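Notes from hallway chat w/ T.B., transcribed later so I don't forget. T.B. wanted the structure written out for a chain they're using in a teaching module, and asked if we could keep both sequence and structure tokens in one place. Agreed to drop them here.
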Amino acid sequence: MIFVAAVMTVLLVSQCVSNYARAAEYNREAAELEALAVSVSEESSEISETLKEENHQAYFEKIAREEYGYCKPGEKVYYNSSYGE
């Protein structure tokens, strides 16, 4: 009878430790997701403010150039190959 109680206690403690570790991991993930949500919200606000301005074309050109590497026809683009060294 004592042996069964000891085994049950060990199983219960191991389950509690496992649940605690899992909860800690969930809390860490939740904190990361909250930080990401704040970052996305700030970026969204910046984009909204930019789009409220009258010059939408300049914003779209900036995004096309910086994020997609586009350029205007006949335009020459120079890259600094030593950047980041």
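Follow-up for T.B.: The CA atoms of residues 12 and 76 lie 69 Å apart. Might be a good example for the class.
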